[in-house]
Amino acid sequence: MIGRLRGELIAKDPPFLLLDVNGVGYDVESPMSTFYNLPELGKQVVLFTHLAIRDDAHVLYGFASESERALFRALLKVSGVGAKMALAILSGMSADDFATCVQAEDTAALVRLPGIGKKTAERLIVEMRDRLDKLGLAPSAVAPKGTTATQEPNPVADAIGALIALGYKASDASRMVRAIDCEGLSSEEIIRASLKAAVTT
């Protein structure tokens, strides 16, 4: 099991990144909460990882903190929640914000995330409520910190592509991005603003 990687960040295309560890390139899929804290290309980064072994592929997921990885693993244990949905949850809100939704039984906030219907939101609340203490999560209104601005050739198009990769329909992703002021923003900042607006509206 690969549990942690430390290496040079050589590419990032949300939700995917490429990490060079002693000459070996690792393709890693990460939530946007991790992307917000990534350094510039060429810098060293440490990721806590989860290796998922499927019949057709081995997929490596990377997280900026152990608490994010712990929540990801806990979400995978919920009936009907797969890796893609777990990443969408972590991309749409911080771990503490998720804890707030669960403890407040706020299904409305959860159903705004891609792929989550009312029944799934209710199941998340029921099954995750008792696990929050074990995960060390507490309700909080604090949003993820540390957005790193990077220059992208077409940040709007990149942001739309990333939202589609996270599970949104192309039309919805385009609408979300066009609804905010993208002037001067990097793709990661556009994604963050779009996701925040989708959850709060």
CATH superfamily of the largest domain: 5' to 3' exonuclease, C-terminal subdomain
Any idea of the CATH class of the largest domain? Mainly Alpha
CATH topology of the largest domain: DNA polymerase, domain 1
How big is the Rg?
A: 16 Å
- What characterizes the major β-sheet? 5 strands, antiparallel
Structural class: alpha+beta
Mean pLDDT: 82
Low-confidence segments, given as residue ranges, are: 140-152
Assign the CATH architecture of the largest domain: Orthogonal Bundle
DSSP helix count? 10
Shape: globular
Domain count: the total is 3
* Percentage beta strand: 15-25%
Alpha-carbon distance between the two ends:
40 Å
Number of strands: 5
H/E element sequence? EEEHEEHHHHHHHHH
Main-sheet strand order equals: 3-2-1-4-5
How helix-rich are the residues, as a percent range? 40-55%
Write the layout of secondary structure elements.
Blueprint: E1 4-13, E2 16-21, E3 24-29, H1 32-35, E4 44-53, E5 58-63, H2 66-76, H3 83-92, H4 95-103, H5 107-111, H6 118-129, H7 132-135, H8 155-165, H9 170-178, H10 187-200
Antiparallel strand pairs: 1-2, 1-4, 2-3, 4-5
Helix pairs in contact: 2-3, 4-6, 8-9, 8-10
